[in-house]
């Protein structure tokens, strides 16, 4: 590993300019697309005009909505400048400009163009992912044809001393300043065009002048912030970790273990296997792919979080009318996410193949439907006042979850001795039985007619402000966001707990886990109960939002859909499960329906399909397209879209078979000098 002795050796003047020019030119195209094609600057002007002319019906007259829109645009502007400073500081300078420009084009430019063309968020993202996958495939083929081999991860690392870190910080400041200056100039040109065309009133010229001056100043400080983020992932000379004397590295406090000793971070990386070293090195800066590093990911998540939280306010501004239907569909997406998180515990963590997961969803749905509707009067004779019983929604979230957890235990108890295909068949039967049972219970569930008029939740009013649960989808959108946040927190805590480690041990090797002292009975039952618990929460939300529940809404194929979310996203990976749920739901329920809308439009290029193929619709070939997508993902990405590190190493173990394995004393034949030297006997 090369250790830099001075900032000149680490970051020479020419090497400082190369990443700066490379990234400024690469980010110039997305700025122009955002400003001129997607009309990002016009959105900002519309916000100001809404404040200045509230009586004009052309603009949004809600100060609260305008304020939130302004906050989001401010977050986008500031985060983008921080990202520019980070990329300039974190780039190693080894990649050529063309490769960087291609990465930026297919990562940022293509989704922005598709968003402007389709005016649909999920379709643009879905097509962008497909184009990105094709680009990666072609890029890898080109590299193979050119016999390109990426540099070893450890040899490309540098230890950054104090002077080197100061130089990196200055580089980030320059990147943020010049990026903000270019951004200000492009926005100024756009505003001048609007002014000449009459779309920009004279009063906004003051804002244009102020913004043009403030952006470069803010860029200097925000670039420094991006550099500070990059410095969190550099290797410092004083960065030490603890390692036991047998060579296994462990982080911890000094002296927490009697045989621990201090080693440098570079020594720790050298002692890792090739696959582990590659995983660790990709987040250390400077590196060859700063766009995919952990620091950049943190900035992406910050912008994504702001977008998700403020989406109901942004939807009419970004995508026009019919925002109510889009927000409703995204609220439905939320309970799919919760179901995927629950099934990930059973299948991803514990390795128990459950094909009857829909049964727990049905139980949770009926748990609230029987209480929060007029059906409660038929069962108990107690008059259920909607204004009163709607408040029971909140405790019923936990009560229904506990009821489904109990059913999870009842299902798991008879299957404790089953594994693999046999467990899948039993759980599949359970998933078939439960909907049929609710269909035959006419006295309690109205049979095939189902239960109508399920009460929505109730919330207190703050002054004159009251949430409209009956006609607005926005309260349900924020409710499901809160529930998803709580479920993610619970999943992370379960995964990192002693119980979560026991689940993973059972998944890897049940016999070895049992030999290590893990109680297989209790651990498996906890897995079934935890997975069913989340399904119960999703069921209560689904019943309250839909307002009507019928047994025909559920079938065993739903369990296959939920399982596909987990497998496509990545078994055992919480971020992967979130992405898998979004992908499967979008493809199966949103994108194909939208494609039918496009095909029915004579002005759309897809209209030729129904013209030349009789009775053609994308809905008719839904299962065919969905099956082809599943096959493609399983062939080219078997570990999932965002796999866990453990899963990735398992499925790509063959790629690392040629790596050198460190031999221990037990690898030496007894009686040899090497064995005696390693195993001294007093």
From TrEMBL:
Residue ranges spanning the membrane: these are 20-39, 63-88, 100-116, 122-138, 177-198, 204-223, 299-321, 333-353, 358-377, 389-410, 422-441, 476-494, 525-544, 559-592, 613-636
What coarse category fits the chief subcellular location reported for this protein?
Answer: membrane
Region (Disordered) spans which residues?
244-276, 652-682
Biased composition range(s): Acidic residues: 656-665
* Subcellular location field: Cell membrane
State the source organism's domain of life.
Answer: Bacteria
Q: List UniProt keywords, sorted A-Z.
A: Cell membrane, Membrane, Transmembrane, Transmembrane helix
Which Pfam families does the entry mention?
Answer: BPD_transp_2 (PF02653)
Is the keyword ATP-binding in the record?
A: no
In the bilayer, the protein is annotated as: Multi-pass membrane protein
- Put simply, this protein is called Branched-chain amino acid ABC transporter permease
Organism source for this protein?
A: Dictyobacter halimunensis
